[in-house]
TrEMBL record:
Signal peptide region: 1-20
Protein's name in the database: Putative maltose-binding protein
Organism annotation: Actinacidiphila reveromycinica
UniProt keyword terms in alphabetical order: Signal, Transport
Annotated Gene3D superfamilies: Periplasmic binding protein-like II
GO BP field: maltodextrin transmembrane transport; maltose transport
GO molecular function, one term: maltose binding
Annotated family: Belongs to the bacterial solute-binding protein 1 family.
CC annotations in GO: ATP-binding cassette (ABC) transporter complex, substrate-binding subunit-containing
PANTHER family referenced in this protein's UniProt entry, alphabetically: MALTOSE-BINDING PERIPLASMIC PROTEIN, MALTOSE_MALTODEXTRIN-BINDING PERIPLASMIC PROTEIN
Superkingdom of this protein's organism: Bacteria
């Protein structure tokens, strides 16, 4: 999880932002509107955070195609580990030395990078075209204070993955659509098959469907108020705790994610809240030797009646201090085009962010076909620069709640106080 932003870092960002805006390359929108893109030249350094062995070859092939289309532009491709890229980018952006022209970044980092003036606004540039073709959820992840600071590249969300065979054995004909139905179905599955209903991931990101389903969130930027301990949030976490107590395998908190995956793919639990990134691993397990046994459904709904999960994925952003913005814009446009996204989806199994990229060939993938309708109800995380830092105290308190070491209200009140330190201008209940 990300740390808070220091005063020193903020000051450096303001200086850097002023330099980037005032330099010869600048971040002016006109530089993205080359009259003849074929005449644009230069070198684009691209930091790619995709899996170096499995996914990166697809991106490298696309880069070769880009260089053929724009022979005057060369791409300096660098694969950077996603666990270190955030700090590496911040360090280079703060110093003004060594930052890439284009970076592939988690959608949750866009507000922070934009607030620090590390990435360029892209509205009206060649980088951001055909916005009406983007799926609404991924497009919303690029926004900060009314402007677009990235282009959606690949997307994901959370859904309900389930073991169809176990559901059939328990006499369940459809996946649960509410948390109460999930508890009831878990009881049926346990009674009929001896298998536990689910495994609750204690990571706070996986708590978001519960919060969103009650109309709750971590904070309210409009009202400048911390809301993680609101009555709606308390109701959401109470529901999550109930599922853990009645329907979940007990968590090994030291190795929760791996144990969750093992339990599901070996048939020891019947359903999970998970993302499309897990499917490849799921299909290696004994429970899913027949790939058709893996079912996909939206997350269950809370009292709002809507299945709401967070929009995740990766966006492409352009460094505001880039000395070659026109080439960076063209590269970003090419890598997020319909053709490129369809190619990435077919080769890597990731979900496109453009509607037009969901071709018949792309939809042959069960996981893409399964998650595509789930994206329709996904929503972005609250657009705060500090949002990543908020997950750490929330997770610490959520674990205490699940373990019975803190009450729901007490744990969320504690998280809210810690949120207040990260959001000093926000009111805390």
């Amino acid at each position: 999880m990300r740390r808070g932003i220091s005063v020193v870092a903020m000051a450096a960002a303001i200086v850097l932002g002023a330099t980037a805006c005032g330099g010869s390359s600048g971040s002016g929108q006109d530089s993205g509107k080359a009259k003849d893109p074929a005449q644009v030249s230069g070198t684009v350094t691209y930091w790619d955070t995709s899996d170096a062995k499995v996914e990166a070859p697809t991106y490298k092939a696309l880069i070769a195609d880009f260089e053929k289309k724009y022979p005057k532009i060369k791409v300096n491709y660098q694969n950077v580990d996603f666990t270190t890229v955030e700090q590496k980018f911040k360090t280079s952006a703060q110093s003004g030395k060594g930052a890439p022209d284009v970076i592939r970044t988690d959608v949750g980092l866009i507000p922070e990078y934009a607030s620090l003036h590390y990435i360029a606004p892209l509205d009206g540039t060649a980088a951001l075209t055909g916005t009406g073709d983007f799926v609404a959820g991924p497009l919303n992840t690029t926004k900060y204070e009314g402007r677009s600071y990235a282009v959606p590249s690949v997307t994901d969300t959370l859904g309900l993955l389930y073991n169809k065979k176990l559901f059939t054995q328990a006499g369940i004909t459809a996946p649960p659509t509410t948390w109460d139905e999930m508890i009831a179905d878990s009881a049926k599955i346990k009674a009929k098959t001896g298998v536990t209903g689910t495994y609750m991931n204690p990571d706070s990101y996986f708590l978001l469907p519960f919060l969103f389903g009650e109309g709750a969130d971590l904070a309210d930027p409009t009202a400048k108020k911390v809301t993680v301990n609101s009555p709606e949030a308390v109701k959401a976490v109470t529901e999550a705790k109930k599922i853990y107590d009645t329907s979940s395998l007990k968590i090994d908190f030291a190795n929760a994610y791996d144990n969750m995956q093992t339990s599901f793919k070996t048939g020891k639990v019947a359903m999970l809240i998970q993302g499309p990134w897990s499917v490849g691993d799921d299909l290696t397990g004994s429970a899913f030797k027949d790939t058709a046994n893996l079912g996909y459904a939206p997350v269950p709904a809370g009292s709002t009646g809507k299945p709401l999960a967070p929009t995740g994925g990766q966006d492409l952003a352009v460094y505001q201090g880039s000395k070659n913005l026109p080439a960076a814009y063209l590269f970003t446009q090419f890598m997020t085009s319909t053709a490129s996204q369809a190619e990435i989806a077919v080769k890597n199994g990731t979900l496109p962010t453009r509607t037009s990229a969901y071709t018949a060939e792309v939809l042959k993938s069960p996981q893409i076909a399964g998650f595509k309708p789930i994206l329709d109800t996904a929503r972005p995380r609250v657009a705060l620069p500090q949002v990543g830092s908020l997950f750490t105290p929330l997770q610490q308190e959520y674990i205490k709640i699940l373990q019975g070491k803190a009450s729901v209200q007490g744990g969320l009140d504690s998280a809210a106080k810690q949120f207040g330190k990260l959001l000093p201008d926000y009111a805390v209940q």
